[in-house]
Amino acid sequence: xxxxxxxxxxxxxxxxxxxxxxxxxxxxxxxxxxxxxxxxxxxxxxxxxxxxxxxxxxxxxxxxxxxxxxxxxxxxxxxxxxxxxxxxxxxxxxxxxxxxxxxxxxxxxxxxxxxxxxxxxxxxxxxxxxxxxxxxxxxxxxxxxxxxxxxxxxxxxxxxxxxxxxxxxxxxxxxxxxxxxxxxxxxxxxxxxxxxxxxxxxxxxxxxxxxxxxxxxxxxxxxxxxxxxxxxxxxxxxxxxxxxxxxxxxxxxxxxxxxxxxxxxxxxxxxxxxxxxxxxxxxxxxxxxxxxxxxxxxxxxxxxxxxxxxxxxxxxxxxxxxxxxxxxxxxxxxxxxxxxxxxxxxxxxxxxxxxxxxxxxxxxxxxxxxxxxxxxxxxxxxxxxxxxxxxxxxxxxxxxxxxxxxxxxxxxxxxxxxxxxxxxxxxxxxxxxxxxxxxxxxxxxxxxxxxxxxxxxxxxxxxxxxxxxxxxxxxxxxxxxxxxxxxxxxxxxxxxxxxxxxxxxxxxxxxxxxxxxxxxxxxxxxxxxxxxxxxxxxxxxxxxxxxxxxxxxxxxxxxxxxx
Length: 563
Prior knowledge:
- By secondary structure, the chain is α+β, with helices and mostly antiparallel strands.
- The protein has helices spanning 9-12, 19-39, 44-49, 51-54, 69-77, 82-93, 109-132, 134-153, 162-177, 181-205, 209-214, 225-238, 241-249, 252-260, 267-279, 298-309, 331-378, 393-402, 409-424, 438-448, 521-529, 540-543, and strands spanning 2-5, 58-61, 64-68, 431-434, 457-459, 461-464, 470-478, 491-494, 510-513, 533-535, 549-553, 558-561.
């Protein structure tokens, strides 16, 4: 039996993606978790024995990426405390159905006491030391990353020949993947700390620990910076009547030309340039190599500014401080909650810092593959540069090594483009359980995949709540991000969000997503901004008509379609 689940990975790789993105992600997953296990004290013999498992952490079905879920359970079982961590893991991934995986027991008493137990003690101590040093480890990672990335950014990729491009890819891969064990270890700390805090809050206060932890503002999240900076830019634009008039009546391309010309010296133009330099690689679906960055499509950013101008918001929202639910507990319990809670919140803060850097390295990888694509196009290997995304990394490097392309390469690319368009118009299950090979599963999906009709009531999990028990408003239903949409004052209904969506969150009245758990991007950012949010709403995009009036029931996690 195999189980494929995209409840969590769909947050990073929303909807359909391309062969290049999948092959790139698969290679990263394969190696980074090997380094992570070594960092967590897993023995080299165990790692080598499970190499086939590491190569199958993700799969490609129906044009979408899925976790090979049983392999993830196996990964968690390599670490101490599996009986607890399994539940934390399921919560973090937002799984709607658990799987009862139990690792094989030791062969006998000798193995249990003389091999397993000493290894368990060693791993526990190593993990505890890693957790204690996590702040310093992440700061060191960020410092080394920024230095190495600065050197990469200065390279002229167009000047490199094809073998040099391939060599650079592996240099970047070796440089960054080995170091990415630190962010992955911090993700593990997020899972353990937040899961432990949730258990304590539920046991001692009968409250949702995730909501309690992340509804009180402690330190600003890096993820929120783009949204706040946009609000500041909007405020500057409104102070300049002529520039405001240009934004009100112009097309994005025309406005860009004026920002580079007659308004180039304005404070708003300076802030826009600073934003593009800092956050130009951030965009919805930023981990898909086929996604264009803001720097590549500045009109996209101008459209967001125009939408923000119509919202009327001029200052970054401040999250009100929630009352301390633990105030009535005995001192020792308050102390335990404070220590575990601060550990969880600090871990989440560090996670957002490293995710920003992740977007940078994926953005650089896109540039590198496009540089290869330009050379392939010039030699007649492919018809245009965008075709590169419909080849796997292995196929690309084989062409570089051989110096030639297969005669039917462009025919294969055309077929893959057709597949991409086919799956874009279809829904696939969140979870697939089957004993069939992947090709047979996909054939079954083709036979049965179709858009699903919805009902009047949908159900999910409340991830962020406000004092109101019900929130109503007009639904903005977006299967994918649309920069031209009117976000202001709407309840967003979408499949999932990633950090690239944050630029529009301050405009929203509420958020409903199909994918994601209590530690997903939508949940964390919505709690920080005090925006009502319900996650895990199955088929919300199909079930809510565009423009319908809907009502979010925050106590039950229900979404009611009113008309």
